[in-house]
């Protein structure tokens, strides 16, 4: 551990992951010298809806990929609810299992204010972009750009925690003759409002969570027909009338898309839901993890401590493919805070022990073949991390919730949100809500009316 007086921590991003770092330090009652740089004007990361696409209010690349009328795609009880601040506590009553984005943002901000005795905002420098991080002479030199003061400067830190998110740099495949296509072409990063596709025939490319959700959204808001193109295998889900699966997209012409089985579809618009890449352009190349997304990014001890540069003082939180989300970030953050303060019971390990541990997890990851396998993998990983950091092991009880959720999706993908779950911490069963395909108001007020 660094001499305590020399610890100065830089957190990059005030989304859920970055806020968990501030929150966990505050919870330990021992906040070191710390600055969190946030390029947007507020906290909450992608949970802040913006109408903007392309450039944000500071003329920087727009961060958020959130769209209007997004309701969580997994029950809040599985991956969002925190052991030390429940939804019931926040809203003063139990709320349904699949809230709209506005309710998630409200809940997160509630935890960072109501459940925390320290004013966490004092540590955040908003409208400030981290432009470059390099490691030299055993310190990180961080170049920042304050967009309000129009000032660029450098700061020196002992530790850096990368929490800048992984859903903002689109993975955009090239498709033969796409240039000929005369309709609308976009990536899900720029998808904001399904109303735009009313009466249209829409092709969704990519059949993972965002592709599924945007396909349903388009149908719900009046698209005439939706084609969902898969690459490796069909989803096998029970799609409602109006959504039809097609194999891999191979080319376009002016009006149509052509698929690997020789079929074609006449379409008005195509939305690429082809995922995102890990992108950390502001990190010196020797400090970056690979661009390919992964359930366990290589080189990260305990899925967070970067071993390939930065002398064991650089961390990533939230860079993995996500099933567990908020609780995962929080669990990792508690480990990181204790590691920085030298308060972990079982550290330090030798370099070789840490590398072997990473190999153990990346080897295990190779056998993941289903969503359930991801749930099991992440649960086992969190079990180890929480054993080490003392984080609440209650979060590990999420597996049965994930199992039910997987089954509900398979039974009825358009209405799996009708199922409600019991909070692992209060034991209360969430109340039922209007069927998802029939709710057209995603406001917090409407959500709390049920
Ligand atoms: C469309 C969509 C739907 C989702 N739905 C769900 C869901 O239903 N349930 C669920 O649990 N999860 C969901 N997620 C997953 C989501 O990633 C997590 O919930 C969570 O927001 C990730 O938190 P984060 O802090 O890692 O990243 P983010 O929320 O992306 O926050 C990162 C922050 O870093 C800032 N930043 C980036 N670069 C810089 C820089 N250079 N300098 C300074 N600041 C910077 C950004 O402005 C941002 O505020 C969804 C994601 C997307 C994209």
Q: β content, as a range?
A: 15-25%
SS class: alpha/beta
Q: In CATH's first tier, which class of the largest domain applies? A: Alpha Beta
**Based on DSSP secondary structure assignment, what is the total number of beta strands?**
18
Major beta sheet summary: 5 strands, parallel
Number of domains: 2
Query: Uncertain spans, ≥5 residues at pLDDT below 50?
Result: none
> By CATH's scheme, which homologous superfamily of the largest domain applies?
FAD/NAD(P)-binding domain
Level-2 CATH architecture of the largest domain: 3-Layer(bba) Sandwich
What is the CATH third-level topology name of the largest domain? FAD/NAD(P)-binding domain
Strand order of the largest sheet: 3-2-1-7-18
Helix content: 25-40%
Helical run tally: 10
Elements, N to C (H/E): EHEHHHEEEEEEEHEEEEEEEEEHHHHH
What is the arithmetic mean of pLDDT?
Answer: 96
Bound molecules: flavin-adenine dinucleotide
From the alpha-carbon coordinates, what is the Rg to the nearest angstrom? 22 Å
Distance between the first and last residues' Cα: 51 Å
* Silhouette: globular
């Amino acid at each position: 551990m660094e001499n305590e007086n020399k610890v100065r921590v830089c957190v990059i991003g005030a989304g859920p992951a970055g806020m968990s770092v501030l929150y966990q330090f505050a919870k330990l009652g021992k906040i070191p010298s710390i600055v969190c740089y946030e390029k947007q004007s507020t906290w909450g990361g992608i949970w802040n809806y913006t109408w903007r696409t392309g450039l944000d209010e500071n003329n920087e690349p727009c961060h958020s990929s959130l769209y209007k009328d997004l309701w969580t795609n997994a029950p809040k009880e599985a991956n969002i609810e925190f052991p030390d601040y429940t939804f019931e506590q926040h809203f003063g009553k139990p709320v349904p299992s699949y809230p709209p984005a506005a309710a998630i943002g409200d809940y997160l901000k509630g935890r960072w204010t109501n459940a925390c005795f320290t004013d966490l905002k004092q540590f955040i420098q908003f409208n400030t972009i981290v432009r470059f991080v390099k490691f030299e002479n055993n310190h990180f030199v961080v170049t920042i750009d304050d967009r309000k003061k129009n000032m660029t400067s450098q700061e020196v830190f002992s530790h850096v925690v990368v929490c800048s998110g992984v859903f903002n740099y689109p993975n955009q495949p090239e498709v033969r003759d796409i240039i000929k296509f005369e309709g609308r072409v976009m990536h899900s990063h720029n998808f904001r409002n399904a109303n735009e596709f009313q009466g249209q025939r829409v092709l969704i490319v990519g059949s993972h969570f965002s592709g599924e959700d945007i396909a349903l959204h388009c149908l719900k808001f009046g698209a005439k027909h939706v084609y969902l193109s898969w690459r490796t295998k069909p989803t096998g889900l029970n799609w409602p009338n109006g959504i039809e699966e097609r194999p891999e997209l191979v080319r376009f012409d002016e009006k149509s898309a052509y698929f690997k089985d020789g079929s074609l579809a006449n379409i008005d618009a195509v939305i690429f839901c082809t995922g995102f890449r890990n992108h950390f352009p502001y990190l010196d190349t020797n400090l970056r993890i690979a661009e390919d997304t992964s359930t366990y990014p290589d080189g990260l001890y305990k899925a967070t401590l970067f071993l390939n540069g930065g002398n064991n003082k650089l961390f990533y939180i939230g860079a993995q493919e996500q099933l567990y989300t908020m609780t995962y970030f929080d669990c990792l953050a508690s480990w990181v805070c204790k590691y920085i303060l030298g308060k972990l019971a079982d550290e330090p390990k030798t370099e070789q022990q840490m590398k072997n541990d990473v190999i153990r997890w990346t080897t295990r990851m190779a056998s993941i073949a289903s969503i359930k396998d991801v749930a099991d993998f992440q649960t086992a990983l969190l079990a180890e991390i929480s054993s080490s950091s003392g984080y609440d092991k209650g979060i590990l009880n999420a597996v049965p919730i994930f199992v039910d959720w997987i089954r509900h999706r398979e039974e009825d993908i358009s209405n799996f949100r009708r199922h409600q779950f019991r909070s692992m911490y209060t034991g209360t069963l969430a109340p039922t809500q209007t069927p998802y395909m029939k709710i057209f108001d995603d406001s917090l007020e409407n959500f709390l009316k049920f």
